[in-house]
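Issue 218. Parser rejects a valid record. Input:
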Amino acid sequence: MSNDQITEQMSNFTNVFKDGLTAGETYIKLINRLIQTEDAEELLDSSSQLSEYVLENKYVKFPFQYQVQDYYLVFISRLLNFHNNDSLEVIINEESVDVSGKLSQLGESAKFKFVIDKAKNGGAFFTETKTGESLFYLNLQKRMMRFNNSALINLFVEKLSEVTTIIQIQQAINPLITLARYLQTDLGFSVDLGILDTSNEANYYLLNKKMNVDVIDKLFVSTEGTDYMLMNLQGRTGMSLQMDVSSKLILAAAGDTWAFSVDDGKEAVSFFDILIRFKLIKKWFIDNRKELEIKSDPMIFKG
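Output the parser choked on:
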């Protein structure tokens, strides 16, 4: 090998080596900014870059780096912290360096991680580890958040309601709703709250376009002899159920499908709240869930 060849080879080695060191320095800078910044845009930028960062080099070997899903968890926890909300605790196992999250209101009843979406959409799902229920989808690059109605019902209405109180469930849901609002106001995210939306204008569309009206008849039977006031809608197909002085549940044909809606004076009650608070409605919904399943964003969640 000639001197020129040796010089060229060693020069290539040093250049690649320096590139590896530079990549490592950049990675550390992004990590430091992620955990130190007090600016929402910088927090998002750091999380977004880290979620796509490739720390590989032919000559420089990095024995450890955090997983992509870890940056998502730190991102939402810190965004909540910006607003003095410490409901989501990030836990790092010192031995395995496994990163997970815990909602303080639920204690040890549930543990959460993000699961990266390997489909074309990218992003990640906020997932309860014991049940595998993905509560919402988050995409940092596209600035979007979508709640999964089916998973919310599976985890909170069916499973956790058996081992926790209504107040605990409502308190555990609140930081997720709060997070959605901060994503909107601080960072301009597009958010779909699904069954957590308390607006009177919100429609919770059924997954099935055709529904057997016998399901409504079953509710008539269930409410007979109770304080609930169930009536057929005037001028359109469906029913209206007055549950208390302020809350009314409506199920009506809407175009080529059906949809629930909730009407209350302060726009403070969602369909999720109805399922949690009113046992009769919860039982009717669960018993007839095949007919009454609520649709989530079909581009993200498969029906």
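Fixed in the parser; the record now loads. The two ends are 64 Å apart (CA to CA).
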